[in-house]
Amino acid sequence: MTIRAVVFDIGGVLEITPDLGVTRQWETRLGLAAGELDERMHEAWVGGSIGTITLDDVYQALRDRLRLDELQLAAFMADLWREYLGTPNTALIDYLRRLRPRYRTGILSNSFVGAREREQQAYGFEDLVDEIVYSHESKMGKPDPRIYALACARLHVAPEEAVFLDDHDPFVTAAREAGLHAVRYQDNAQAIADIEELLGSGGTVEAESSHDRTQATGPQLHLVDRPADQRGGGAGGLRQSAGRGQAAAQAD
């Protein structure tokens, strides 16, 4: 079946999101043990990632659980958003922009309340693609098969008519199980080549997994170094909840 849509992840793909050590820095500042900040904030991080609480609820949790005053709260959130947003992967963003109008384009992201507004201000994602599906707005996240179905429905394509790019193996696997063609992001050149191969073949050639590619050709030179995820430990905070930029420890 002909490919009609291409869908991109954000963290670690369209955004370069290294671990800036924000969580550990604040643990030191607040006299907390390693891992204690995320432990105290776990429910709020999870709730914010699937939209069961508001950003104001997150702020109140920070006041209650970390005893932050208003100045500390503003500084803490500024640091978390700086780490969450990272910097633009300009080459891949330019490629995504060039896919229109030949293909419908979308974004599918495990996110956090407030992310749409901040990413629009920073990168203009709403102007870049036809549809954005955020976990915090959808009340579900990857690898839930329903969120892949939602992305396809919003783009008005069948799953087999869509290609999905993500940097986290479980999310790539889940996309394939949901019926989409999926590419595991390693670096820009590899990702673009794999997408173009699928587009040229009409989806009849499935992109290799990162494991298969490494076994066949040896270690790859990766352009972007990103932190290991589920956004716990070193990555922490908003990135822990959202599960974005998932494979950095492997220099994905």
Folded structure, characterized:
The protein is of the alpha/beta class and 252 residues long. It has helices spanning 22-30, 36-49, 55-66, 70-85, 90-99, 115-123, 125-128, 135-138, 145-155, 169-177, 188-201, 210-217, 237-242; strands spanning 5-8, 15-16, 87-88, 104-109, 131-134, 162-166, 181-184. The chain has one domain: HAD superfamily/HAD-like (Rossmann fold). It is 50% helix and 11% strand. The strands form two sheets. It has a five-stranded parallel β-sheet, with helices on both faces. The two termini are 30 Å apart.
Query: Kindly state the mean pLDDT as a whole number?
Result: 86
| Full CATH superfamily name | HAD superfamily/HAD-like
Distance between the termini: 30 Å
Q: Would you give the CATH topology?
A: Rossmann fold
The DSSP helix count reads 13
Low-confidence stretches: 207-236, 245-252
Major β-sheet strand ordering: 5-4-1-6-7
Question: Quick summary of this structure?
Answer:
By secondary structure, this protein is of the alpha/beta class. It is 50% helix and 11% strand. Strand 6 (162-166), helix 10 (169-177) and strand 7 (181-184) form a beta-alpha-beta unit.
Which tags fit this structure?
252 residues; alpha/beta; Rossmann fold; five-stranded parallel beta sheet; 13 helices; 50% helix; elongated; disordered C terminus
Layout of strands and helices, then pairs:
Elements (H helix, E strand, L loop, with lengths): L4 E4 L6 E2 L5 H9 L5 H14 L5 H12 L3 H16 L1 E2 L1 H10 L4 E6 L5 H9 L1 H4 L2 E4 H4 L6 H11 L6 E5 L2 H9 L3 E4 L3 H14 L8 H8 L19 H6 L10
Parallel strand pairs: 1-4, 1-6, 4-5, 6-7
Antiparallel strand pairs: 2-3
Helix pairs in contact: 2-3
